[in-house]
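Input set for joint prediction.
Command: fold jointly, output tokens.
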Amino acid sequence: MACERTLSILKPDATARNITGKINAKFEENGLRIIAQRRVRLTRAEAECFYAVHKERSFFADLCTFMNSGPVVVQVLEGENAIIKNRDIMGATNPKEAAPGTIRALFGLSIDQNTVHGSDAAETAAREIAFFFRETEILG
Ligand code: ADP
Ligand code: MG
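tokens >
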């Protein structure tokens, strides 16, 4: 088992509904530690840069508009196999397909407003953590 770090974002639908604490409790109950956290309003350009891997996809413009629509909480989660563990806690991209008890099943509104982002692999986790945090801001 490897101790890993992953980048998590509580999306604008989560901050709008004041459920960030409920979501953070899910991470902590499942053994992930929040070792860095900041509430930010992404500019449209920052959202486009963060999601650049999806720039050819039909949903890219709507995704960036949504991520710019209100505050988000960016955070680094740490724990055993944190990357895949967080993906399991999040549930499937489409809340309608997410397993019962997952964050997206519990709180997701739609495939666009699906409440959380989580890195999908070690390389993306490293890139996404560095996008938001300096090493001195991460207190493991
Ligand atoms: P995930 O967030 O589960 O890693 P992706 O990386 O594939 O999913 O997509 C990034 C985000 O883009 C999703 O969380 C979702 O908000 C949005 N998205 C993905 N696929 C669609 C789609 N078919 N229609 C609308 N939005 C989508
Ligand atoms: Mg993804």
